[in-house]
Amino acid sequence: MATLALLAVLLVLPPSPAAEAPLEPYDRLYDSGVEAYYRGDWASVILYMERALRSRAALHTHRAWCRGHCAGLTEPGPPGDPRPLKDLHFFRSVLHRAHCLKSCELRLLGAPSSLYQIAEELELEFSKRSPYNYLQVAYFKINMLDKAVAAAHTFYVANPDHLEMRQNLEYYKLMAGIKESDFKDLESKPHMEEFRTGVRFYTEEEPAPALEHFERALEEYFKADTECRNLCEGPYDYEGYNYLEYNADLFQSITDHYVHVLNCMQNCVLELAMQPGRNKAIEDFLPSQFNYLQFAYYNTENYTKAIECAKTFLLFFPNDEVMNQNLAYYAAVLGEDHAKLIGPRENVKKYIQRSLLEKELLFFAYDVFGIPFVDPDTWTPVDIIPKRLREKQKVERETAARITEEIGNLMKEIETLVDEKNKESLETSKTIREGGPLLYDGISMNLNSRSLNGSQRVVLDGFLSEDECRELQRLSNAAASAGDGYGGKTSPHTPNEKFYGVTVYKALKLGQERKVPMKSALLYYNATDKVRRVIESYFRLDNPLYFSYSHLVCRTSIEDKQEDRQDLSHPVHVDNCILNAEALICVKEHPAYTFRDYSAILYLNEDFEGGNFYFTELDAKTVTAEVRPQCGRVVGFSSGEENPHGVQAVTKGQRCAVALWFTLDPRHNERERVQADDLIKMLFNTEEIDLSQGAQTTAEAQTNQKEVSEESEKKEQSVETQATEPEAALTSQAEAMGESTTIDIADAAAEGGLQDPTIPGVSVGLSDKSEL
């Protein structure tokens, strides 16, 4: 009874994190948020996703606190006890600690810990910050733009290759009312944030504020290290074992689990040194902080602290030549006798002592039981590793290096073969077989590749009449007046011009809503497909072209910004690779739209000054051909490095054109174009509008518009619902962000909608926006 009474006293907990009774499992909250997203219930998406994030954070905080608190209950037995009593004293401590942990978690969580076992797949979604992908759409939908920006930025920091989110962020930057401070990482680690701030001040040669942030970074680092280590004391991961077949005895099972925990604790070094979106941790992160500190203290002439930090660094790397020289210099300035009294930081000495003991146990387990351990640190002394294991590791490293080299060489050979095959295939498909039929009466060839001093280039005239050009020009401005498109935004390529424009799908939607003439929207739709068919035929392509992106855009010069203007309306670039003019190369890799194969521009007017289109060599300076826009003229060309191009500054008036990009890969077929096709079918009850009928089809469609308007309004809801089905690529760009649009800065002033989150298991194609 006395023992039980003592135990009851021991289990009285000191002040702890606030309890949420009961804490709702975050997997359930996340699932509810996803369901709300499919329903378009944006308020519920925000409610559940925010609660899921808070629940996960609270679970980690409570568990870490309980494990840290209960660790103090483990006490060794009295010295001199015989072995059986020592075992009993040890397991009594273990039992008390387990009881403490169970009671603590039950009190703080409000439910048994087993309720919070989360599937590995879902935990991966949280590590990828997927909830913020949903949140940025939901916040945008209810016009809470500052929160939408923060959620988008938080997701993008951890997913820098996510092209759609990058485009969304570029769009947000152009929106009125958005501040630089809105772009914040809501999941940033305090120690990493302080460290980066310290480095920034350090590089700006401001040692005083740098020191403040470096010291705070260390303080936060050790807090995070403690929490990380506490969270390692979770269930055993059986990995290769089948749980039902696992039959280790008492001490073997204890060994397996404890070594698993120690391995996790050692890897906290990597966890704390990881930056979101990076695949590799900062090497020697903790020692490097003392390297910064010693030099920053030297710059403030605080030699006492400089010596302390230098000696602390040398605990990790005692033979570092530069640091030993620094220490000798600081000691000479301060005085040798005084310098000897200054020691390294005690908390770091204890940290290293503990870490080395853990490594010793892990290497022993590796050597004796074959339980793998990869040391995350470079500073570990060699004598910690058993000699037999050192020799084994040396052989393994040499073998691994040889295999890696052989695999690398093989991959290079494969890549070379694939590149050659792709190049050969591409060249074959593009084989200079231009000169195919132009398909429509009235279209004529003005200039071919030879006349334009290049390859895969053509200038065609007669695509539109003067009246049709004026109608499309009015459409662009009307879309901006209707609150759609991107009217009046400053061009991302120059501050000296503004642009107005709209995509095909948006134009059709505005026509359906009677905000612009449906006749104009249909003319736009038909004209773009007309260009696609002619380009495909003229270049005699064996495979069909698909729309990669298309939009109508008008650039207007800003009168008071034209004096002494030196820039271009659109700098020289290549449509499917990143142009390095100095090196005379074009790199076909992300973030370029590498899937683009052909490009075209349909011009609508010529009553402006400047704004000529021109081709150059790879140096982006040597002009090979120049084209003056005029109504109904099309410039078509292949999208590769053979055709660098740009647009001269528009110095007076407004320049309007329909910019089009095509791909031979159906996987990159533009989603908005598919939606436009579906909307046409819905509005006019036809499988396909006969584009060859041209104006006649347009006129008939306009006549029928009144008859179908009521039915189309009913069907619109059905179309929008279908867009959210899991089999599709989630919600379309336009519907994902309502009536707003995205402007892609990477390649041009383009317009489209913000992107929806990717549901696990659903493939979402990349958006492809840009503007010539």
From TrEMBL:
Q: Fe2OG dioxygenase domain spans which residues?
A: 550-664
The protein's required cofactors: L-ascorbate; Fe cation
Gene Ontology molecular function: any one: procollagen-proline 3-dioxygenase activity
Q: Provide the E.C. number(s) assigned to this enzyme.
A: 1.14.11.7
Q: Which BP terms from GO are recorded?
A: collagen metabolic process
Q: Which terms are listed as keywords in the entry?
A: Dioxygenase, Endoplasmic reticulum, Glycoprotein, Iron, Metal-binding, Oxidoreductase, Repeat, Signal, TPR repeat, Vitamin C
For this protein, the record's InterPro entries field holds: Leprecan_dom (IPR056585), Oxoglu/Fe-dep_dioxygenase_dom (IPR005123), P3H (IPR039575), Pro_4_hyd_alph (IPR006620), Pro_4_hyd_alph_FE2OG_OXY (IPR044862), TPR-like_helical_dom_sf (IPR011990)
Q: Name one GO cellular component term.
A: endoplasmic reticulum
Query: Residue span of the signal peptide, if any?
Result: 1-18
- Answer yes or no on keyword Cytoplasm: no
Span list, region Disordered: 698-772
Q: Where is the composition biased (Polar residues)?
A: 730-743
Cross-referenced Pfam families, in alphabetical order?
A: 2OG-FeII_Oxy_3, TPR_leprecan
Positions with biased composition (Basic and acidic residues): 707-718
Regarding protein family, the annotation reads: Belongs to the leprecan family.
Q: What is this protein called?
A: procollagen-proline 3-dioxygenase
Q: Which organism is it from?
A: Pleurodeles waltl (Iberian ribbed newt)
